[in-house]
Amino acid sequence: MLKKFIKCCRRNFFIQITVLFLPIAIGIIGIAIYSYDVEKKREYTFNASNQFAILNMGKNSIRQALERVKYDVQYLSHYHEFEDYVMTGSSEKVEHLSHDFKFVMENRRVYDQIRWIDETGMERFRINFNSGSPALVDVQNLQNKKGRYYFLDAMRYSEGETYFSLFDLNVENEKIEIPHKPTIRSATPVIDKEGHKKGIFIINYLGDELIHKFIDATSLSHGDVMLLNDKGYWLKGVKKSDEWGFMFNRKDLSLAERNPSAWQRISKEEEGEFVDEKGLWTFMTIHPPANVKEGTEGSVWKAVILLPAAKLYTKSDTLFSHLSVFVVLGLIAAGIGSFTLAYLYRKKQLILKELSELHQRTEGILRSVPDMIMQVDNDKRYTWANHVGTEFFGEEVIGKEASFYFEGEQNTYMMVQPLLTGENHAVYVESWQRRYDGEKRLLAWWCQTLRDEEGIITGILSTARDITDEYEIQKNLQESEKKYKTLVENSMVGIYRSDTLGNILYVNSALAKILSFDSSDDLIGGKSVLRYKNPEERAIFIEKLYKARYLNNYEMELLDKYGVPIPVMVSATLEENVLSGMIIDMREIKESRKEIEKLSKAVEQVDDIVYITDKVGNISYVNEAYSRHTGYTREDAIGNNSRISKSGIHDREFYKELWTTILNGEVYRNTLINRKKNGDLYYEKKTITPLKDDNHHIVGFISTGKDVTQETMLHQEVERIATIDSLTGIYNRHKFEELFILESERSRRFGHPLSMIMIDIDHFKSVNDTYGHNVGDEVLKHLANVAQENIRKIDIFARWGGEEFLILSPDTDLENIRQLAEKLRTAVEKAVFPTIGHITISLGISTLGKDDSFSELFKRADHGLYYAKEHGRNQVGMFT
């Protein structure tokens, strides 16, 4: 039948050409249509995700600004000077209050007015920004705002709630202010001590600042960026003349009027995207900050980007032009080829052509592989290498014995020999080998036995990757960790870590010396309760630490190795059931205190800040050090109240606890953040002692303090270095290993599963080589953010080294850790990274066995990761 068909085609030359030409023509047109469709979808997806990411930055800029306003409203409305003014109405309070609020306005530079409007609607207090020169408004110029909507709305709120007004233009004396001043008013009820409403505390926020933040955050968009209120009116439009239409009863100046179909979709949905004849619409809903009533009229806005249709498919349109040329040329070539093949149609030639194409495809695949691929025969000579191998070893590698390149690595070379005898079928080794130019590089080899169809060993097939850069990164991380440990070990104060169960996790040599132990190892693993003179003291210490999350300068007595009580001062923090902190030997300090008492006349000579007050805090004496450290002279301080040094950082509860303690006759010790006369902040480790007369009645207080700003900053920096990776802001390797010990013990104690994910960025070296290490660092930080958004709060996330990350997931079995890993892989693949666009990751997973160590769990995850990379990357691998 086939022979008859061929004979017929020879008789009919036109039919023969048609039979050859039609499939080729259909294929060319089909490929062109498919390529255009794929590019159009890809361009749409890219533009949609890009506009969504840009719009989300704009949304976050607005929410952060409103959160700042909400914080300031709540903070300033509870400012003690303001509360005193509300209670007393004293004009003297107004001066102090206006000075502080002017300082806030000068520093923020975004508040147009700060006011107190009483319950009748009358302004009782107002400061105007005045273009950067804040001024208190005279009483005769204060206005009654009882009819303004924002006063009526805010008065319906409860204590602690924050009100945000419409985003509109400011109105003064019943007229829109010229030039236009976009304004958002944020207010909260003012409540006196009896619980009665005394009006509202209100701040006028300059809306231009909010709009500028929104514009800056969305500046990367090539579309039209808009901000609309809940009625569809432009707060920020494409044209300035379209904005604020609702203030002038201009319904035509709204998206709802000009494009009702688009507005209907935008107003009904929380966020999304759609395409119409105008282009790609991307929109998000901006809600009020937390603790703000959702129902507040005008409190919900819509952020919108319209990418015009002309900009949506620019690359696709260009591709269409190119494809049109490709189709025409392809059809011409197909016609010529069909004509030629009609004369040269021979089965042998077709077979040869197919073999040639197959060979080219194979060569292309091998050239695209980034790793070396080498083949060794039974005589241990290289018989074939891909281009990566010849570029590394040189063209002369073919025919040479493999041992020639394992100079100084004979032990590693011998590990490969069992593959030729059949004792092993695969082996992984790492070895330093000399490149053709003489430079030594570290290679990771994966070798496996080659067999023919009859199962006879014919040689070894090896793949190798240059891991020198990864090795150097790991080496640098280890050196950095060593420097940190050296810093801690050489510290003059004791440093420790323990869990809330009392297990000592770490102590430095200084603490071991304080407690008379020969080595830190004598303490690590023991119980901290054994070191307390009074065991109940530990329970009190832990209870206070749970409440405050940190304690400074807590004095107690510990027992040394021989049971001798040692007075110490402890500063500690509590984080995820782990205590960490510093311990200072107080023996010399206590002896010094005795000497100071004997030498009270030398108070003027010490560098400690000393001053004496009466029962209400009015200063009657300061020493020379007080003036030197605070900047206040004796004339400034004496007769004034001690609150002149208040920084505004501590809240009312903090000072309430201070006064309760000293008025009960107890000594108060703490580290305070105070403010100098020039406005600078400093940390003062303060002790306040009640002064009593012969009848034991308190007549005043003596305060002594030391400027510990540098020590506090050092402690905070040590804490940060100990736990956080400096680049990504997540846990570092040291912290991860520490938390693994706690989680593995919990897993075994309660029989709960514990699993691990290892993450590695695909082709990360190419990112650094192509874009530079700064862009590489940005990719690492962005990847950390994407991962944190897709894991649970209980999951432990750390940077292990280089582009490798680890996730430890408590209460997670193998199936659930696989699902989490796949979720992370998909999220990273879809994410848009700065500068480079998209990347992929490979992941390895493992689950803790009954008797597994950390290294065994880690090794299985690492093997899973290697499996994922060897099988194409961008996937989850599991080693079984």
What's the helix and strand layout?
Blueprint (H helix, E strand, L loop, with lengths): L1 H10 L1 H65 L2 H9 L2 H18 L2 E7 L5 E6 L6 E2 L12 H6 L8 E2 L3 E2 L1 E2 L2 E2 L5 E10 L5 E10 H11 L6 E5 L5 E3 L18 H4 L1 H9 L2 E6 L2 E8 L14 E8 H4 L1 H30 L3 H22 L3 E6 L4 E4 L1 H7 L16 H7 L1 H4 L4 E9 L5 E12 L5 E10 L1 H22 L4 E6 L4 E4 L1 H6 L20 H14 L1 E10 L5 E11 L2 E8 L1 H12 L10 E5 L5 E4 L1 H7 L3 H4 L14 H12 L4 E8 L5 E12 L5 E10 L1 H15 L9 H18 L3 E8 L2 H8 L1 H17 L6 E6 L2 E7 L3 H17 L10 E7 L6 H17 L5 E3 L2
Parallel strand pairs: 33-34
Antiparallel strand pairs: 1-2, 1-9, 2-3, 4-8, 5-8, 6-7, 8-9, 10-11, 10-14, 12-13, 13-14, 15-16, 15-19, 17-18, 18-19, 20-21, 20-24, 22-23, 23-24, 25-26, 25-29, 27-28, 28-29, 30-32, 30-33, 31-32
Task: Describe the fold and architecture.
The protein is α+β, with helices and mostly antiparallel strands. Helices cover 43% and strands 25% of the residues. It contains 27 helices and 34 strands. Strands 1, 2, 3, 4, 5, 8 and 9 form a seven-stranded antiparallel β-sheet that branches. The chain has a five-stranded antiparallel β-sheet with strand order 11-10-14-13-12, with helices on both faces. A five-stranded antiparallel β-sheet has the order 16-15-19-18-17, with helices on both faces. It is flat and about 120 Å long. The two termini are 55 Å apart.
Feature tags:
alpha+beta; 880 residues; seven-stranded antiparallel sheet
Q: Outline, from the CA principal axes?
A: flat
Q: What distance separates the N and C termini?
A: 55 Å
Percent strand equals: 25-35%
Percent helix range: 40-55%
Q: Give the rounded overall mean pLDDT.
A: 85
User: Which structural class matches the secondary elements?
Assistant: alpha+beta
- pLDDT < 50 runs, ≥5 residues: none
- Strand elements, count: 34
Helix run count: 27
- Largest sheet geometry: 7 strands, antiparallel
